[in-house]
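[audit] Reproducing an earlier prediction to check determinism. Same input, same settings, fresh worker. If the tokens differ from the archived copy the diff job will pick it up downstream; this log only records the rerun itself.
[audit] input (321 residues):
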Amino acid sequence: MNCFSILESTFKNYGLELEPRDPFFRIQNSYALPTSIALEIICKAGFCPVISLTRLHGDLEFTIVPFAKPPIYEKLVCRKFPMDVEQLRNSLASTASLIVKVGPICIQGKQIFSSLQEAKVDMVKGCQQPSTFVIEYSDLAKDEGRLLDLGCGLGANSTPFLEKKWNILAIDTSPLALNLFREKIQSIDSNYLACGQLKLVESDITECQLEANAFDLAICVDVLPYVKPKRLEKLIHKIHDALAPNGKFIGTLFCIPFSGSNALTELMDKLGAHHYEDSLTYALLKNGGFQVEECIYRLENATTEPTCVQFIASKTSDASN
């Protein structure tokens, strides 16, 4: 029996249909299916999956990991090793910034972008899909909450909450991103901006002032990796303080691949990203006063190892000093 037949049979036991989309598999009618449940089903079939970057047309997609994996990866969660505050800070301090500010950006002898500015514009326009954790949270979210979207980009992660009457503060350093976000929202319903339900602010998220205990949910997807390591711990504390008691935090960090490096990580490093030990995610959040609810690898494409972890955490305590 081949891979697809085994997976197909397993999903049928749960009343779900599976569709092959080489090299991915799509779970049909899975818009409301939690990622954790999908992963559990695939594991029961005897495979090691990675959920794809986004849901396509609402459905979850995944692929079988195409590389040698350590046993811990079978559990589908990011590796978690003890790391105290001193180790956390040493790890942050030892992470170098490899951004290329002058000249073209080349990988393996091929020019990818003519300049960093061109790359940033491309990145802004490419952020069109919400995080899978955001989709799952927004499906079940109450009405009339308060959302903080840090590094909002085009607003892919904010938009699902507008119809639920959430008040949203969206912050980004890019005027281009904010203008495109504004144009999109005006085309949907200009009242969101006119009545102040959505507020767009141009600012550096590490420097902006945030009201304490003011938000039910904070989102910072694909932004934390671009924050300078020496500012990252302070930013996590700031997010913690801005959340109301039991508030949720959805975000991502980039991790070092098991093999050490690949073309994707080299490119992202040159664009200003930082790749950390994956165990740093837990330590950083715990030190910031959060309890991690779920932290899994995210697949960027079908041919490379995961280089990103996505998490959802709860504000549960005072942050460490």
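[audit] rerun output stored. Observation attached for the diff report: The two ends are 55 Å apart (CA to CA).
[audit] end
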